[in-house]
């Protein structure tokens, strides 16, 4: 065998040995590239999730702040002292005995008739203004709206007088004019509905049975 043939065989053998190594390196490069793409994809998704969580947290914080700023609903257990005062003022303004039981008081409001001159209020010889309202009408009717504002004014004047005498019958929250007006309107609407029901013979009969 010629020496040249031997050299070629050595080269072929070396190439044969190197080729698998080259294939392995190419495979590793492919794997590294795929792995890098997957890592980049995971990183992107993680960042998106983190951004979504941050946005959700901001929304929840915003909702919490909005809830704190929301005005207190006029439920049955809110402003009880103020509501009691308003009930008494209604009775006083309409010339109704304030110590009557609830059902008797509603009967008295139902029985009110306009004054002879058709006006909703009259000033007595003693200087007291007595209102005879049509509680079947809505709170928005002129005479009823005037009455509501008179009650609100009376409550706010009571606040001033009590403060001057260092007496705190109601909390400061009760003496916000909007709160007072809302409570006055709510009581008027309550009376309006009760008077309407008692003016309906069928509903009145049911109420009498219920109260027995």
Please give the order of strands in the largest beta sheet. Answer: 1-2
Distance between the termini: 132 Å
**Overall 3D shape:** rod-shaped
Average of per-residue pLDDT values: 77
Sheet with most strands: 2 strands, antiparallel
Query: What count of helical segments does DSSP give?
Result: 6
* Strand portion: under 5%
Would you count the extended β strands for me?
A: 2
CA-atom Rg in angstroms: 42 Å
Low-confidence stretches: none
What share of residues is helical? Answer: 55-70%
Structural class: mainly alpha
Q: What is the element string, with H for helices and E for strands? A: HHHEEHHH
Question: Can you tell me about this structure?
Answer:
This protein has 212 residues and is an all-alpha fold. Helices cover 70% and strands 3% of the residues. The longest helix is centred in the N-terminal third of the chain and has 67 residues, at 3-69. The model has no long low-confidence stretch (mean pLDDT 77).
List keywords for this structure.
70% helix, mainly alpha, 6 helices, 212 residues, rod-shaped, two-stranded antiparallel ribbon
Please give a quick description of this structure.
The chain has 6 helices and 2 strands. It has 212 residues and is mostly helical.
